[in-house]
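Hi L.,

As promised, Purine nucleoside phosphorylase:
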Amino acid sequence: MTQKQLDESTAYLQGKGFEAPEIGIVLGTGLGKLAEEIEDPIEAHYNHIPFFPLATVEFHTGKLIYGSLEGKKTVVMQGRFHLYEGYDFLDITYPIRVMHQLGIKKLFISNAAGAINLNFKKGDIMLIEDHINLQGGSPLAFKGVGNFGDRFTDMAEPYDTTMRDILVKIAEKEKITLQKGVYASVVGPQLETKAEYRMLKIIGADAVGMSTVPEVIVANHLRLPIVAVSVLTDECDPDNLKPVNIQEIIEIAGKIEPKMVRLFRELIKSL
């Protein structure tokens, strides 16, 4: 990744009309509906954006959508990249750097995750308060990272406390169950064994997924305030573990999605 590449990607999007967005949103597995609510949308498919990776997961569509949401210019990433697709950390986080260069001031992230904390239920939404990086690497571990920001990025509070507090109040007002917890990010794509679920519980994870953490690290590197939620699509009880049906996970994500959309819309409205 070079500054020249970022400039080219940004210039292409600006040429299509992506002018000074304030909010960036990354949509997780089965969570593409928010993109349909964008007013006056302009779309850019990943395969047309210079130096952008391509989404290879069948339920990730692969385009940036720009337009207005609650009166604010927004750019939505419909379809994200994962280590399990064979991408590296620089590929996965490249779109965050491009959105930042376009001008976003806040980043919202969503993902579908499994509930490790058995007090949480399938169908709940979890506000991520902290994370554990189990992906075996960092998107900041490359030569020349200092040209893009501080090499030794502080992660004492990776998720913006102000936006978290606002989301908690919105959830109370909207009567949406919003759990709070720690998200563990693993490589995947295989799901966890019983022993792995037990380990995750011991180390303090409340939910587990295969994304989000690289994007959050880079956003912190760019000093970009982030709020992130996990849509809990399955319960990871090692003592009663059933085989997981990915199609069912997508369906559950789709059912919970309207609540997540409501939370994000109200948060945008309040900013």
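Residues 194 and 241 are 7 Å apart (CA to CA).

Thanks again for sending the construct details.

K.
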